[in-house]
Design a protein that fits this description.
29% helix, 5-stranded parallel sheet, 126 residues, two-stranded antiparallel sheet, alpha/beta, globular, 7 strands
Amino acid sequence: MVPSKPTVAILGASRDPKKFGYQSVQSHLRHGYEVFPINPHAETIGGIKAYPSLDKLPVQTLDRISVYLPPETSIHLLEQIAAKQPREVWFNPGSESDALLARAEQLGLPVIAACSLIDLERNPIR
């Protein structure tokens, strides 16, 4: 599958519209991304097919990964994240820790420790 739009995986995508993991899915859609929600406990999120993990995605690489998981969970997913060769990895507020960011940088990941939702409003497509 060759995407025609920039791609984003939302780690920690949520079915709850009040959570940032849901709002991120919707905001990335509005801003022209092909969105891949990642949630092992959901079949769909906001009407979009959800995937249990990054390695189950129908694409080999991603333009962006936006993380809404606790750092103690995400640190175990860094190799999966690296395997997708993302152009950007956003660790949203609350998803980062010094240990996580240090390990991500050791793996050569293009880390951005900031809110991807705010970035979308400032820069709709990077």
